[in-house]
Amino acid sequence: MSELWEVFVRARRGLSHQHVGSLHAPDARMALRNARDVYTRREEGVSIWVVPAEAITASSPDEKDAFFDPAADKAYRHPTFYEVPDEVKHL
Amino acid sequence: MNDAAEYALRLGDDALVLAQRLGEWAARAPELEEDLALTNIALDLLGQARALLTHAGELEGEGRDEDDLAYLRSDREFRNALIVEQPNGDFARTIARQLLFSTYQLALYDRLCDSADDVLSGVAGKAVKEVAYHRDHAREWTLRLGDGTEESHRRMQDAVDWMWPLAAELFEHDALTERLVAEGIAVDPRALRPAWEHFVGGVLEEATLTRPETTYAPTGGRRGEHSEALGHMLAVMQSTHRAHPGATW
Questions:
Q1: A3-77 in CATH: which number?
Q2: Distance from CA of A25 to the nearest CA of B (A)
Q3: Where are the domains of chain B?
Q4: Under CATH, what is the fold of the domain B3-211+226-243?
Q5: pLDDT digits (tens, 9 = 90+) for B162-202
Q6: Do A37 and B33 touch (CB under 8 A)?
Q7: Closest residue of A to B145, CA-based?
Q8: Which residues of B touch A2 (CB under 8 A)?
Q9: CA-CA distance, B40 to B36, in Å (whole number)?
Q10: pLDDT, tens digit, for every residue of A57-79?
Q11: Are A23 and B33 inside 8 Å of each other by CB?
C-alpha cells in the first residue's frame, strides 16, 4: 500500500529546498510526517516538501551524451568574467 | 516518599514505561519509517522520564538519582498507569494505546505548564510540543487503519476495544492528587476527561470506529498493583544495570 516519495528539505530561510532522499508512505500527509522523523530529527530543516516519486520525470542515462555533452565546449556561456565580491554568499 | 515526589514519580513512570514499550518496536515496525517514528516518540518520552525521575529523587531527598529509580525498583514500586505497561500487541494495538495515552498526556502537560512546581511546569512546557506530535501521529494512523481495508478496520477496532478500559485509570483521583491540586502543584485528573472524550471520540468517528461501551475499568497502577506484563518488561529493562551496577556507556 506504500508509495515511494522523494523528500526535499530547506535547511534554513533563504536557501532552497534540497533533495535529501526518499521514503515510503501511504499518502502525502503521512509522507510529510515520515520525512520529519527520518530526515529532520537532528534539526536539519525548517521546511519539507514531499513529491510522489512517480511524478518526477527523469532524464535517462542513455541520453546523457545528447543532453549534456554539447554544453561542454561553450565556455562563453559561463559567467566567469565577473568578479564576485567576497561578501556574496550562496552564489 | 512525600506527596510531591510521589506525583513526579507517577508522571515519570508513565513516560519511562511507555518509552521502553515503544523502544521494543526498534527494528520490528512495519516499515523503516515507522521504526524511526516510534523510537523518536520513545526518546521524547525517555527525556521526560529522566527529568521527572531526577526531580522525584531530589524531592524525596534520600540521594536516589534517575538511574536508581529506573533500574533498582521492583514492579510493585512503579507508579505508572496500567495502560502504558501493556504489551505492544500488533501495530494497531500500539497505535490505540498511543492515541488514548498521548491525548491524555497532552491535556495533562498543557495544564501542568501552570504548576506551582517550577520543574514540573518546565518539563511540561517543553514536552507539550513533543506530545502534540505523538497525538498527531496516533491520530493519522488510527484514521488510516480504521478507515482502511476490512482487515485493518477489524484490527483497529479490536485494538481500541482492548485498550479502552485501561484508559479510565488515567482520570482517577485520590487523596494525593487532591492535596497537590490544593497546593497548585498537580492537575486534577478528572478535569482532563471531557476534552479527552471529545478528541478521541472525534478521531474514532472519523476513522469509522465504534466507541467502546464498557464499565470495566481495571486500576491499581498508582498503588503499585500492576499486571503481570510489567515485571517481564522490567526484567529486560533492568538486566544490564543489575548485572553491571554503575556501568556507563
A1: 3.10.20.520
A2: 8
A3: 3-211+226-243
A4: Ferritin (1.20.1260)
A5: 999 999 999 999 999 999 999 999 999 999 999 999 999 99
A6: yes
A7: A26
A8: 31
A9: 6
A10: 999 888 888 888 888 788 778 77
A11: yes
In this structure, are strands A47-52 and A3-10 parallel, antiparallel, or unpaired?
antiparallel
Q: Which of A2, A30, A37 sits opposite B140 (nearest CB)?
A: A30
Q: How far is CA B221 from CA B52, B63, B71, B135, B170, in A?
A: 18, 25, 18, 23, 10
- Whether residue B33 contacts residue B22, with contact meaning beta carbons closer than 8 Å, is answered with no
Q: Which of A2, A27, A37 sits opposite B37 (nearest CB)?
A: A37
Does A29 contact B at CB distance below 8 Å? yes
Residue A23 touches chain B, beta carbons under 8 Å = yes
Residues of A in Cβ contact (< 8 Å) with B32: 23-24, 38
Residue B23 phi, psi (nearest 5): -65, -25
CB contact under 8 Å between A34 and B37, yes or no, is: yes
Asked if the ipTM is above 0.90, the reply is: no
Instruction: Give pLDDT tens digits for B10-33.
Output: 999 999 999 999 999 999 998 899
A41/B137 touch (CB, cutoff 8 Å), yes or no: no
The answer to whether the predicted template modeling score (pTM) of the entire model surpasses 0.80 is yes
- Tell if the CB–CB gap between B33 and A34 is shorter than 8 Å: yes
Taking an 8 Å cut-off on Cβ atoms, the answer to whether A30 and B144 are in contact is yes
DSSP symbols for chain B: --HHHHHHHHHHHHHHHHHHHHHTTTTTSSSHHHHHHHHHHHHHHHHHHHHHHHHHHHHHTSS--HHHHHHS--GGG----HHHHS---SHHHHHHHHHHHHHHHHHHHHHHTT-SSHHHHHHHHHHHHHHHHHHHHHHHHHHHHHTS-HHHHHHHHHHHHHHHHHHGGGG---HHHHHHHHTTSS--GGGGHHHHHHHHHHHHHHTTPPPP--------GGGT---HHHHHHHHHHHHHHHHSTT---
Question: Which sequence spans correspond to the domains of chain A?
Answer: 3-77
Q: Is A29 in Cβ contact with B37 (below 8 Å)? A: no
